[in-house]
Amino acid sequence: MSRFRTVSAAALLAACRASPAAPVAPPTTIAPAADLGFDSARLATVAAYVASQVDSAYPGAVVAVGRHGRLALLAAAGHYGADDPSPVDAHTIYDLASLTKVIGLTTACMILVDEGKLDLDAPVRTYVPKFRGPQKDQVTIRQLLTHSAGMHWWRPLYREATDRNSAITLVDTTPLDTTPGTRFVYSDLGAILLMQVVERITGERIDHYLAGHVFGPLGMTSTRYLPPRSWQSRIAPTEIDTLFRHRLIRGEVHDENAGRMGGVSGHAGLFSTAPDLARFASWLLETHKQEQEARSSPLAASSASPPCSVLCFSSDIVVQFTRRQGIPPGSTRALGWDTPSDSGYSSAGTKLSRHSFGHTGFTGTSIWMDPERDLFVILLTNRVNPTRANTKILRVRATVADLVAEALLDESR
Known about the structure:
The protein is α+β, with helices and mostly antiparallel strands. Helix content is about 35%, strand content about 10%.
């Protein structure tokens, strides 16, 4: 018997329509693989491979692959975890971990830049006056987004702070590790600082802002911080926490520092499903495509573009944020997003185009988008259950991306 389960288009549409009041989001209906430029047999190997890694790389997983705003594959495999043999399905909710940085925080920054409220090259102190210390006046918003601000990558806020405010104060007063703009250091502290910028500009806590300005407009009804107790049976458990809470974590953020911050931070805290992320990816790729069409034929693009019925901003903002910045030299980072490694060692695998962009999450999540092919690949797992010691997800992510690329028909590659 097959170990993976696919979802019908009718079931997916029913889930997407669960909130009638939500505005219409970009279509994410399941289409025949060939209609989207895939070899159906090769695409089936993606789901089969994800299923083959159950109880090796993770307890369970959901994979979603789509093009042109439609899903070609949505499959679930495995179970919830070591203490719960219940099978996961395509609507299982996962802790996104650091996908929070791009799905949430980066998207908020894109909106604020488009509205003229956020200047990428302004000093951070313009927005967060309490961020003071040697060389901190040199730190810019762009450097935070490219992880080149000179900030330490992490500190144990969950041990040092007592609540969200005291954790934020520790971030603001932590001395820089290196001179701003000179070295890439992937930094959770930088994301927490950038979160403060967003909150000060908007006057809202980031979870409230994203709910009203991103997830609501896109119809992402299963995406949020602080999932309610009624969702718990649908949420994949993460780790047996031996550092902070000393129990199995389910329905609350896995990241200890985000946990100390009450579950709401710029670096972690979001929960979501593969269908919701497919909506997000379809919208972002569609917005990116509008910029490409405008460059090739401004008149045709303006006449062909339908009225915007969901979250809208200038398409050139998407291109700007998803393009590799080259800051510092040699870095693969775009603004918030990452791009494929030149060496080929990347969660994007070796076959996505050089203009692809994506991100990963510590709990075993990833999302990659290839605008050249109008393609997205989403993989959600709880690989940290029951322990973070299992790192086989590193190989799995790259293999999934390569299998998807290999499933494209020749004219679509």
